[in-house]
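Propose amino acids for all 152 sites.
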């Protein structure tokens, strides 16, 4: 059997209780993804040294600030660098990350006002992974990834 392509995946999408609120959110299509890909769990926020649970944070331009007004950009940057390191180490060219997260969001994130409004943008880890050539997707793309034509 040929080896499966390696894909980073937000640990919370595997049901790991690492989200800011201490929860996890297992993907309904997890088994099909596991048949297709070798999944490598990451939580950039924990990798950056943030606790779980933690105060919600949102991007405000180039910074990440939590709801209490504390700048947590350094932790998000450390976590993003660690996620990139893991992608390089495992040769992962794909990532399936948590939508709208200030670290993992891809294409759309919250606007930084903590009002629930969304804007075009990427989380810190998604941005850095994309810059190094990793194809980044969110859980909304899981079914498409299962059907994706694999060229490895």
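Proposal:
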């Amino acid at each position: 059997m040929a080896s499966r392509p390696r894909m980073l995946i937000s640990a919370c999408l595997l049901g790991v209780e690492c989200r800011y609120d201490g929860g996890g959110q297992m993907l309904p299509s997890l088994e099909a993804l596991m048949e297709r890909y070798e999944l490598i769990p990451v939580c950039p926020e924990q990798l950056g040294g943030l606790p779980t649970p933690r105060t919600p944070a949102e991007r405000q331009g180039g910074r990440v600030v939590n709801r209490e007004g504390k700048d947590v950009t350094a932790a998000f940057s450390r976590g993003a660098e660690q996620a990139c390191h893991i992608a390089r180490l495992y040769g992962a060219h794909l990532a399936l990350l948590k939508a709208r997260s200030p670290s993992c969001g891809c294409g759309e994130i919250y606007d930084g006002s903590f009002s629930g409004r969304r804007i075009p943008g990427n989380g810190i880890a998604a941005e850095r992974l994309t810059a190094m050539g990793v194809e980044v997707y969110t859980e909304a793309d899981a079914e498409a990834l299962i059907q994706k034509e694999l060229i490895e």
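The first helix runs from residue 30 to 36. The longest strand covers residues 6-10.
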